[in-house]
Amino acid sequence: MKEIKQVIVVRKDLHLRKSELAAQVATASMGFLLDNNESKRIDEINVKLSREEIAWINGSYQKIVVGVDSEDALQDLIFKAEMEGIGVYPVFGSTSRGKEPVCVAFGPDQASVVDQVTGHLRLL
After folding, report:
1. Which pTM does this prediction carry?
2. In what order do the strands lie in the sheet with 88-95?
3. Distance (Å, rounded) from C-alpha 43 to C-alpha 13?
4. Alpha-carbon span 22 to 10, nearest angstrom
5. Interatomic CA distance for residues 89 and 33, integer angstroms
6. What φ, ψ does residue 89 adopt, rounded to 5°?
7. Has residue 1 got a pLDDT over 70?
8. Which of 93, 119, 94 is nearest to 106 (CA)?
9. Contact 80, 117 (CB under 8 A)
10. Measured CA angle at 35 (ends 48, 103), to 5 deg
11. Share of the chain above pLDDT 70, in %
12. Pick from 113, 86, 100: which is nearest to 10 by CA?
């Protein structure tokens, strides 16, 4: 299988402390597991995974963290990813303006697919 990766996009305009940033990125990275949980029990996780997600878990766990300058830029990426069928897993945080997206994980999926939406962004 081709290279599989996950890209986590963080809003730079929120100026998160490093500890907050690390926690939000970690939460976003695991989002695909929780969003796909089909179990009705609170003590059990039953996740249906795509071939790409299974390959990622059994392989490299490659994660790339990049940044955008605004919520609008992040929302634009979310829209594009959803149009391409890429998994989108947002993390919301409390800010002075209320609850808003802090970061979003895209994938895991084939690197070439995720790069169609996030490949132009700079590493954080």
Report:
1. 0.92
2. 63-68, 4-11, 98-110, 88-95
3. 37
4. 10
5. 10
6. -130, 90
7. no
8. 119
9. yes
10. 135
11. 99
12. 100
